[in-house]
Design brief:
This protein is α+β, with helices and mostly antiparallel strands. It has 24 helices and 31 strands. Helix 8 (about 300-315) links the parallel strand 10 (about 290-295) and strand 11 (about 325-330). The longest helix is centred in the last third of the chain and has 23 residues, at about 650-675. About 55% of the residues are buried.
Amino acid sequence: MQPSRREFVKWVTASGIALSMSRLGSAEEAGFAARETLPGRQNWNPAANGAGRIDGVAKVTGAKLYASDFRAADLSGWPATTSHAILVRAPDATHVYTGMDLARLSGALKPSVVVTAEDLAKIGTRVPEFYAGDLFCPVGKTPLYLGQPVALLIFEKFDAFDQARLALRDGTFVKFGEETGPVVGPNYGAFRFTRVAGPTPDAPDVYSPVKNGWVSPGHFQDSDRPIWARLPIPTGRAYAEAATHGEQIRAELAASNPAVLVLDREFETQSVDPMFLEPEGGIAWYDAGTKNLELVLGVQSPYETAEGLAYMLGNARVPFKPAHIKTLFAYMGGGFGGRDHTPFPLYVALAAIFLPGRPVRLAQDRYQQFQGGIKRHAFKIRTRIGVDRATGKISGFAADHVLDGGGLANFSANVASVGAIGAIGIYDIPKVDITTVALHSRGVTAGSMRGYGTLQTMTALEVLIDEAAAALPLDPIEFRRRNALKTGGKILTGNTYSVSVRTPEILDKLSNHPIWQQRTQEKARGGQQGGIVVGTGVACATKNYGSGADCSRSTVEIDPQGRIAIHGDHVDMGTGLGTALANRVATYLGGVADEVTVHEVDAYGALALVTSGNSYTMNQATQDAAAKNPRWVPAISSATFASNGAHVGTQAAAEAARVIFRFGLWPAALDLWGIAPTHPTAKQWEAARWKDGQLIMPGLAPLPLPAVAAKAHARNGVTGAMAHAFSRWGWSRATFPVVAGQTWTADIDALAVRRGGGKYVRLDRSSVKFPPTDNNRFGKVYTTTCGTSVRVEIARATGALRIAKAYSVFECGKALVPEVVLGQAQGGFAMGVGYALFETLPPYEGGPGNGQWNLGQYLVARGSDLPLRDLEIEVLPPVTPDEPPKGMAEVVMIPVVPAILNAIFDATGRRFQSLPVTQSMLKGVLA
């Protein structure tokens, strides 16, 4: 049974481990903190539009920010010498593992310590439930998957480590015996999403997941596939109802009806690597005398990582059980989901535990990252779509998805459900039936990655939409326009979006853009030249953001000189979160922060938060009872992923800044203006604005920020605020007694304040409204939309494809940092090109699990493959000036892939139903 976080913390304390999650090392706070603190306005270089990056100089000049940069000598208080470890992985998953050829590592290459499954059993480690399976494959068992670790080799000298690393690269070091075939495991998750709309748009659904609940199929027997048909057994009636409606939808699509265009197609997507710039790495030191374990890591989920480390070692025997674990979190050179709940930190900790007294660095090179890093799921998709020929409206849709989850469950079940829910994209379809299953296999583990299943399913969808438009025939954009979901329309799960839906605007932008307007002339130009074929493609996609249990914690402070400091618990994965925090806080406090720290997860003790239960599965009664404790929240911390940085990661900081302004700076400004608290103007604080570092109020003299801050401190007003925010498809909202006789209501559920230069004091909320637990059935209510058009030129003789021009248009609410938004869109375009045309990993033997893969075999998009000077990015302005930021970092990748495929069809007349579409495939079509 998965313990609640509250129960977990109690258990950790009872077992004798004090768990600490911090950016600051106990022995060297100044050094590590200084490296990980962004310099704020000291390196502020705003562009003409007022944007800028506070982290830009540090990152491009090679400041020691990233986890893999650190050695023991960089961490004051640690021993100066760094030892090194190698994680040995199995390149075979169909034969019994019999051991390692350690004789090859003799003399100077001999490791100081070898750690195996037997050693873990002896000291009493446990595997955190999320990573269920053997941390090391034991001798005598067949590995669960290709690339499963079998041992840690630890070397005290770098030269020995370096030579051994090269000596082991040929893949023959790990030995195998009897052939058993792959280990067969249960699937990771299976769901059916069925919706039958009511007779009118305003009528209740006949059936939907929100109305009737989420369902999974039953089984007659052990099988690697679920049985989707309705079973003749008394249990599972909820599923049987979904199956009845679903099979009726499929029967209607299968019926011979000349008035309905029906297309039945299959599509396959490939396994790919996140290919972040910095492979996973970390360093750890276990002081056996004090029983302190310290680690430097770069992960997307700091809170859960620290919990997992404590759980793994919580029952270990002396002297392998630390009394205290301190995790220090550094920046990451990219994540893309591949560092969200990765087991790699567990091995970093084990390396230190088994060589006490010596800091040990475990860092993967690119070969090792390919062999063991989390991958994107490969999908097999079958889709059927029905379109009324007279109206061009989609009448029915059915699809079946099979995901290859690889060796560990990771987030496979979640990816399956998100991909299924997103499978109808931007469209309003009255009858939908989708089945999805994530399977265990011997492949390298697949998990979260940018797009999270929707990239796969929406690529298949948008290619099919183009084919349907051609068959009707209708202009592809007009066909999309006729079927686009409108504001207030219901999505697959049966709920509506709670944010703006701007698909019509985006489709109009695509339609009116020169790339689309000139497509006929450009195609003719290609025909006249003879050596090339030219095609234009378009696609439009929507992507949810948020997980349904998102949290953020932040502290914001201002000193008497007007200097601002921000501390946040979300992680910067290259997404510019630090700058986003600075910009959002500047709206309320009038200046760019002088220092910003991110991934700081242990700086909020004043809130004294507690939690219990599972925020995804608890019922309303449980939540209501728990909420009576003013310190209780549904979840304390959550992982950072691409689409929740701006929306979630800055929320607590923004609300903390509002508290400082309202109860610190605003009363101070009234004093400076000589306005009494009882004067009507005193209630007009929302009308005040900051401009060029001065507080502006109509009819009053501008006030510089330092003067206002100094007065706030002198008055002992609120000069610091610490807040916690929680979202379950809507923010928690609570009321707090900030000053005598005045309360404050905001989209947070915990608050502590500092007055003047004093200490933080928790304010117990007087009321709170957490989002209803029933929201867990929604699937998604936050979404952003992106459309892309591309023009390609393909050489007839060679099949070489050039993207001549491209255009992406999307919306993201209020763009906190326009430069970062632009960078995300450009990066998303490049990733989409790589996914469509180059990147692929064989799933099993011959694939990355054999340890032989590097960038020589794995092709990614390079500058020469991209329209560097001919990519136009347009960001729609917010609907209203105060529209909140939306998560857009994932959606900007998705339509790129089908737009390229649709352009290839326009150029060649051939529709490709699998990825990637390589140069040799194009040459074969054009020969």
